[in-house]
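Need the bound structure for phosphoenolpyruvate, inputs here:
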Amino acid sequence: MSRKPIIAANWKMHKGPAEAVEFIEEFDNLIGGSSLVDIVLAPTFVSLPAVRDALVNSELIQVASQNCHFEEKGAFTGEISIGMLQEIGVDYVIIGHSERRAIFGEDDRLINAKAKSLHAAGVKPIICIGETLEERDANQVENVLRRQLKEGLMELDGEKMFETVIAYEPVWAIGTGRTATPGQAQEAHAFTRKVIGEIFGEDISAKIRIQYGGSVKPANTAELMSQPDVDGALVGGASLDPGSFSEICKNSTV
Ligand code: PEP
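Answer from helper R.:
Posting the output first, comments after.
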């Protein structure tokens, strides 16, 4: 089953509008006019309009938000609705990132509510899952992933799952420089695909793309991407530099 790789840059709380546009100019030059992978940039909320404008003639690069609220509008100070993101032209929304779970207390129920609203609006979610080091050491990886998938994907529309992306991001590998081995990544991805098959059936599980995230850099991309169930990467630190992010995109076609 061939799945087109999807490489996404999660800029977290980096790059205001000016810096984001500078990145795109440099990155465009480095990547050239074509790519065999889907490329997604996830800037901060305030940089989304500038990024969208800078990409107006680009068929190569899509745009993601790093978060959204599940309600359409209301008294939710500091939040952004999916409709507002659609107005800017956002293609994807990252939900369930481990930083949102750990720092902002987001749980699987909230992530599920966001996923349902995104599906209803026709915006593609990138849903992050992954275990902590304590959970891995306690042999709980499969239990944690199963719970996050069962609860996070509860009652989602199967048809919309084809365009949904799952990002397996072991928490212990995020921003630590400690990457999962290709074998560890493959094992978790194969398990994730199996659970998705149990929930939505084989057709969807064969087609859904599963990204790996956690200290991806140019030097480890090809080996991770050569694993049969690794269909892309969600990249934090190494996506901030146009040179290293373009190398990651180029090294992703194996
Ligand atoms: C992330 O934040 O999604 C991530 C994977 O970060 P890093 O690449 O820096 O580990």
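Comments: Residues 167 and 211 are 4 Å apart (CA to CA). Strands lie at 6-10, 38-42, 61-65, 92-95, 124-129, 165-168, 209-213, 232-235.
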